[in-house]
């Protein structure tokens, strides 16, 4: 792999000399995410393979171009999983792109986000240097936790070469239940259940139907099912894949799909369009042709923020506007890691 790394160094050096920005790409399954693409494609898919995996350590380390499906298959053989349930959005998804985008699936409400599971990372910076951050154990952080800073950075700080990710055992039992109720009742129920020792690992409400997933020990799942009631869904696994991969009918043919991050107790957001609610009420998906200003204003009024996730007009910026102090932090980080602005310019923050 040293030859591949040298080719990366040469490409970065040429880009720096010619002031030619680079757009990092491997599987390309999330090219639509974030602000408009800029720069010449920089294919890093050749740097692939699982570097280390010992199931007893609950950590897997892999190179950036390793297919996500390959990693999940290796984990499944040992009865383990990526607990943040990352979406693939295509068969060519890679672990590098997964960490760079920082997206999490339905299990995030119970297990945590992608950032919570990244233990270490190896980065190639704008000078072609290979920098190591974090490690392969739970307690490894001294100073700034750069490996988690890279999660969700959309490649703006450099090329993520390798990541070490914490994994967890797959649950012994899982059941999916659905309940007929309106959104107000669903919000109340979800927040009530959140304060109880129930093995709820995913939730989704849409058009008068609340769906829950229970996961864990067989006895705990069965006890929760009896306590909660509801109607069992026979194809529960397929339902959650549809939500994770956005093949559920709600996500089809949306003029613009917005992701709203809100306090979980927030009632219905009064914005034109259809909604799907996840993560115990904390994540709301909105299909809407309303203006970005109206949607963001509605989110801000209840203490949240809104991201234009897919489709729509990106000219006003995809992500919620940052406060001046936070924007300066982003600029300082970009200047420290990539002073010539070579990597993925503007993909995360316009003008950075």
Could you characterize the architecture of this molecule?
With 352 residues, this protein is α+β, with helices and mostly antiparallel strands. It folds into two domains: 177 residues, Uridine Diphospho-n-acetylenolpyruvylglucosamine Reductase, domain 3 (2-Layer Sandwich); 143 residues, no CATH class. The chain is built from eleven helices and 17 strands. The protein is globular and about 65 Å long. The protein starts with a helix and ends in a 15-residue tail after the last helix. About 2% of the residues have low confidence.
- Main beta sheet: strand number and arrangement? 8 strands, antiparallel
Please tell me how large the radius of gyration is.
Answer: 21 Å
Low-confidence stretches: 137-143
Order of SSEs: HEEEEHEHHHEEHEEEHEEHEHEEEHEH
**Whole-number tally of structural domains:** 2
Shape estimate:
globular
Summarize the helices and strands and which ones pair or pack.
Layout: H1 2-18, E1 22-25, E2 40-43, E3 50-54, E4 59-63, H2 68-77, E5 80-81, H3 95-101, H4 108-111, H5 114-117, E6 118-124, E7 130-134, H6 146-150, E8 159-166, E9 168-169, E10 173-180, H7 183-194, E11 200-206, E12 209-216, H8 218-228, E13 231-232, H9 236-244, E14 256-261, E15 274-278, E16 283-287, H10 292-301, E17 305-311, H11 324-337
Parallel strand pairs: 1-2
Antiparallel strand pairs: 3-4, 4-8, 5-9, 6-7, 6-8, 10-12, 10-13, 11-12, 11-15, 14-16, 14-17, 15-16
